[in-house]
Design goal:
Number of strands: 24
Organism: Streptomyces nodosus
Strand order of the largest sheet: 7-16-17-12-11-10-6-9-8
Shape: globular
Number of helices: 15
Pathway: Siderophore biosynthesis
Radius of gyration: 23 Å
GO molecular function: acid-amino acid ligase activity
Family: Belongs to the IucA/IucC family.
Strand content: 15-25%
Distance between the termini: 61 Å
Protein name: IucA/IucC family siderophore biosynthesis protein
Helix content: 25-40%
């Protein structure tokens, strides 16, 4: 039968914000479901349950507020989630209410960091006095809050004041600012705040230390350490968040859709074929809200930090699925081009790693398949765990989870990890490959005593490659997407420094003073070169995540310039 795509619920997709550089070059057209012409897949499979945990959408009861007090939209979002939670998991209702104040502070702290440091056009200037930061808006208003350490990960902002009015919810503050595209962003902040409280509410007490790489990933509860939309999952019901969010620790049953005339690259395993048709693993949310097609029952899998990538049970490979929902701030589908080149890029980067001797492994792309639509495709990668030796007590931990181990509290350990990461990152950059080495893509192999031994890198969809630098080493790049290829020094350094230093290392350190101490100890032992010199003397680039969300018609990355911990800043790292 011919299969037509189906439009998801409001908020699941669409809008005008830019999709991720990695996989989405443009948002789905409203109502299209599947793009790129008529769908090329056919399915006669019977409809299977979407997951081991079957979420159900239930109507929210009336808000439990005093009707004489006008609620803020943010409060309404919090109450709507509470209403759903009362129906689907009432045991979490009280923990959710308890978690809300901390979630509000966490999201507001991330937003305040952005307001303090990003080049937002409606902020005229910033000034500090004692421990307070004042932002002078172009319309004459003033916004007051604490001085903002750009590398702090702990929540430290309980409220900020716009004029004389205090705001303790990020969404309410964004609406009050009244800036272009702020209303849509405010809605995402509302939803993200409530979702973060839900994530925090559903955590076990005194849980044992994880023993698998995927279990470590599920310990990362708060999501992106600096993005205000750290837990925004618009389009997901409460039941779906509980069923599919990695921090909720459920097993997800993928669906399998047979596709005729599919694009297949690499070695697509025999168990994922139906005669001459490849079977594409489909996330149950995608099948229910976007594809609307029958699917046979597929493998059980553990959701990882990105939610749409899952570890197959029994220590199997990882499968990256298309998920045409806006998670954090980007639509997470899989472009046909990325499927076409994924195996080639994987082999190429590993060859550069081998040539340079960098202390890093790249998770190999085993195979990839696409139904010629960004909404239906999958990439199969080897598990990072294959690069550790369990017999020697080694384990693989995503960098985003390192603060949970307690290891970064040791200045010596943190300096050693920074040295390892910079050795690998700068070595590959000098050879012509700039990694997007943030805390989700980068993992570390720890010894039995917790010492950082080597790194593992996954997901090559957003790297940058310099033909000129490669040529100096006698290397040539394969045919790549045009956006991945550049010889511009600033672009290459931003890619690595912004993700690795201002992202992964900063979040592992948790504050500017800790980051400075680690970097100062690490750079003394690194080979001198122009990239290291730039790292030590220039402002540190970081993606301007809020500016990008408020500039939806502009594609590509936008950047903030943060105070460099390696450059003397006086007595503070705040503006």
């Amino acid at each position: 039968m011919s299969v037509e795509g189906r439009r998801p619920r409001s908020g699941a997709r669409g809008g005008s914000s830019p999709p991720s550089d990695a996989d989405a070059r443009g948002d789905p057209s409203p109502g299209s479901g599947v793009r790129g012409g008529p769908p090329r897949w056919r399915s006669t499979a019977t409809l299977a349950p979407p997951a081991v945990v079957s979420p159900t959408t239930v109507p929210s009861p009336l808000p439990r507020r005093n009707p004489t007090v006008p609620p803020s939209p943010c409060a309404v979002a919090e109450e709507q989630l509470a209403g759903e939670l009362d129906s689907v998991r009432p045991a979490l209702s009280a923990p959710y209410a308890t978690a809300l104040p901390g979630a509000r502070s966490a999201v507001l702290s991330r937003l305040w960091r952005a307001l303090a440091h990003e080049p937002l056009p409606w902020i005229a200037r910033r000034e500090t006095s004692g421990g307070e930061l004042t932002l002078h808006l172009t319309d004459g208003r003033r916004l007051h809050g604490p001085r903002a350490d750009p590398y702090a990960t702990a929540a430290y902002v309980d409220e900020v004041r716009l004029g004389t009015r205090a705001y303790d919810r990020a969404g309410d503050l964004m609406r009050a600012l009244g800036v272009p595209h702020g209303t849509e962003f405010a809605g995402e902040l509302d939803h993200g705040t409530a979702s973060l409280a839900l994530s925090r509410a559903d955590q076990p007490q005194d849980a044992a230390e994880p023993v698998t790489d995927w279990a470590w990933e599920q310990r990362v509860v708060d999501g992106h350490p600096y993005h205000p939309n750290c837990r925004s999952r618009q389009g997901f019901s409460v039941a779906e968040q509980l069923a599919y969010g990695p921090e909720h620790r459920q097993v997800v049953r993928l669906g399998l859709v047979p596709v005729e005339d599919a694009l297949v690259r690499g070695d697509w395993p025999a168990w994922l074929w139906d005669g001459g048709r490849p079977l594409i693993p489909v996330h149950p949310w995608q099948r229910a809200h976007v594809l609307g097609v029958p699917a046979s029952e597929g493998p059980a899998a553990h959701p990882l930090m990105s939610l749409r990538t899952l570890a197959l049970a029994a220590d199997g490979p990882h499968v990256k699925t298309a998920l045409s929902a806006r998670l954090t701030s980007s639509v997470r589908n899989i472009s046909v081009r990325s499927v076409e080149t994924s195996r080639t890029v994987s082999d190429f980067v590993q060859s550069v790693v081998t040539r340079t001797g960098a202390p890093l492994y790249v998770t190999r792309t085993l195979g990839a398949v696409s139904a010629h639509s960004p909404d239906l495709g999958a990439v199969l990668r080897e598990s990072p765990a294959v690069h550790a030796d369990p017999a020697a007590g080694e384990r693989v931990v995503p960098v985003a989870a390192l603060p949970l181990t307690g290891l970064p509290s040791s200045p010596e350990w943190l300096a050693g990890f920074a040295r390892l990461a910079l050795t690998a990152g700068l070595g590959l950059l000098e050879a012509g490959v700039a990694l997007e080495a943030h805390g989700q893509n980068l993992l570390v192999v720890l010894s039995s005593t917790g010492a950082p031994r080597r790194l593992v890198y996954r997901d090559l969809a957003d790297i940058r490659v310099s033909p000129a630098r490669l040529a100096r080493h006698g290397l040539r790049a394969p045919e790549l997407a045009a956006r991945m290829v550049t010889d511009d020094e600033t672009t290459l350094r931003r890619k690595l420094f912004g993700s690795l230093v201002a992202g992964a290392l900063a979040a592992t350190a948790g504050s500017a003073p800790a980051l400075r101490a680690a970097l100062e100890a690490a750079v003394r032992d690194l080979p001198h070169g122009p990239d290291l010199a730039a790292l030590c003397r220039e402002s540190l680039p970081a993606k301007a995540l809020t500016l990008m969300r408020l500039t939806p018609r502009r594609s590509g990355d936008l950047w903030a310039r943060l105070p460099n911990p390696l450059v003397p800043q006086g007595d503070s790292y705040a503006p």
